[in-house]
Write a structure and sequence with these properties.
The chain is α/β, with parallel strands linked by helices. The chain folds into 2 domains: 258 residues, Rossmann fold (3-Layer(aba) Sandwich), CATH 3.40.50; 155 residues, Rossmann fold (3-Layer(aba) Sandwich). The chain has 19 helices and 17 strands. It has an 8-stranded mixed β-sheet, with helices on both faces. The chain binds nicotinamide-adenine-dinucleotide. The site of nicotinamide-adenine-dinucleotide has 29 residues, from helix 9, helix 10, helix 11 and helix 16.
Length: 447
């Protein structure tokens, strides 16, 4: 545990990195005008006053701007990482040193430390939690259901020290939660279906101003950025295989094509596959793509999408990477059983020898855009985190009326974010005339 001069409990790499973290966070803030406006209102209105908020998010410059906004709204904020490789250590130091925010995150932390930091965020006794992948909510539900054996050891050991009344109070204390990503929302909806969800959750990912932009343009650009920073390969003239043509996959496929690659898409959904084909990509099964591709990227939210049977068919020097949420999309355990390695050949590149061929795995199969690059650009996170801030306010205000289910923020708030973003970009749009409004609401005017 690091402790600052103000006695803020925290565990970060080095508080001396704070000035660099502050400079970079301020740079990101320039591209986050919507969040800035929300921060100004939060400062005046204090909608989160007296609330303890625990967030488990990628600790980046954009998240720093969100954390400061939540604090400006009156919340006592604790922050841990939602991925062991995505923390920006200078940003973590800046939040602790300059804002007194309790940050528990170190880039490259091992499995035990990662979960000890989740424990620290839970020990903050949150009224509101904020997740990117449902790790905090998942742990709280294991406590609620008394499935302590399913908790990671650092969390389990702490929970075992609590009385049963205290465990119940920990879960009951949470009035609501928010979730950032597709994978987390899928899990929460499964919990709601099984009727085990203990409090309302706002699915930020389901907002139009989130997934249409963050998943598509954010993941599209930053995934390419991560691959380039990790490898410095020339994309033009290469064959890139994109697994999954959802919001993230289509964004990345577009960017890879824009950089001059021939792009193949693999899918399991006939509609998405058809869309990819008509968007001008070649759709093939992974087994076929395996022998053709130079660079493979998974963006599916599924497990073992690239398996040993595919890797055996790959060309010498094939590069494989994941930009979906968890590090399960590439079957790296299967690879480790049959291949020799890994040998680290660059900072985020590991070489494996498989039957005389070389396979290069980027960022240990974790989110390549966050591990090897800086994640999404601030301008797109402006909208995602505007959603997070408004979702936190909404869940606190509406807690009593929202059922224990997965909800979206109201469509009007979603549109307000789009309006604010457009106006910050200096883009004007038309408004319906009264005649047009009448026309669109009528049914009696025909040919
Ligand atoms: N890298 C990032 O920063 C980032 C950002 C946002 C979301 N995500 C994550 O990326 C993943 C995808 O998110 P999304 O919003 O695009 O989801 P989505 O549901 O829109 O798309 C996922 C697609 O993958 C397809 N798919 C599933 N299994 C497959 C398989 N075995 N082979 C080929 N295709 C398969 C599905 O049919 C679907 O079209 C999720 O895990 C999400 O949490 C990552």
């Amino acid at each position: 545990m690091t402790a600052t001069a103000h006695g803020t409990p925290a565990d970060v790499k080095d508080l001396a990195l704070a000035p660099e973290g502050r400079r970079r966070t301020e740079w990101a803030e320039r591209s986050m005008p919507v969040l800035r406006q929300i921060r100004e209102r939060f400062t005046r209105e204090q909608p989160l006053k007296g609330r303890r908020l625990s967030a488990c998010l990628h600790v980046t410059t954009e998240t720093a701007n969100l954390a400061v906004t939540l604090k400006a709204g009156g919340a006592d904020v604790a922050l841990c990482a939602s991925n062991p490789l995505s923390t920006q250590d200078d940003v973590a130091a800046h939040l602790v040193a300059d804002h007194g925010i309790k940050v528990f995150a170190i880039k490259g932390e091992d499995h035990a430390t990662y979960y000890d930091h989740i424990r620290a965020a839970l020990a903050h006794r949150p009224d509101v939690t904020m997740d990117d992948g449902a790790d905090l909510v998942g742990a709280l539900h294991m406590v609620a259901l008394n499935r302590l054996d399913d908790l990671p050891p650092p969390v389990r050991r702490w929970v075992e020290t609590l009385s049963s009344a205290d465990r119940a109070a920990l879960v009951r204390g949470v009035v609501g939660s928010t979730e950032e990503t597709t994978t987390g929302v899928i899990r929460l909806k499964a919990m709601a279906k099984d009727k085990v969800l203990q409090f309302p959750v706002i699915a930020v990912n389901d907002s139009e101003t989130k997934h249409l932009f963050d998943n598509r343009y954010g993941t599209g650009q930053s995934t390419l950025d991560g691959i380039l920073r990790a490898t410095n390969l020339l994309i033009a003239g290469s064959t890139v295989v994109v697994a999954g043509y959802g919001w993230c996959g289509r964004g990345f496929a577009q960017r890879a094509r824009g950089a001059g690659a021939t792009v193949l898409v693999t899918e399991i959904d006939p509609l998405k596959a058809l869309e990819a084909q008509m968007d001008g990509f070649r759709v093939v099964p992974m087994q076929e793509a395996a022998a053709i591709g130079d660079i493979f990227v998974t963006l599916t939210g599924n497990t073992h999408v690239v398996r040993l049977e595919h890797m055996r068919r790959m060309k010498d020097g094939a590069v494989i990477a994941n930009s979906g949420h968890f590090n399960v999309e590439l079957d790296l355990d299967g690879l480790a059983k049959e291949a020799q390695g890994p040998t680290r050949v660059r900072e985020f590149v590991e070489e494996w020898r498989l039957g005389g061929k070389r396979i290069f795995v980027l960022a240990e199969g974790r989110l390549v855009n966050l591990a090897a690059a800086e994640g999404h650009p601030a301008s797109v996170m402006d909208m995602s985190f505007a959603n997070q801030a408004l979702a936190a306010e909404y869940v606190v205000r509406q807690a009593a009326s929202l059922g224990k289910d997965v909800h979206r923020i109201p469509a009007e708030l979603d549109r307000d974010i789009a309006r604010l973003k457009l106006s910050s970009m200096g883009v004007g749009i038309d408004t319906l005339t009264p005649e047009q409004q009448r026309y669109l609401a009528s049914w009696d005017q025909g040919t």
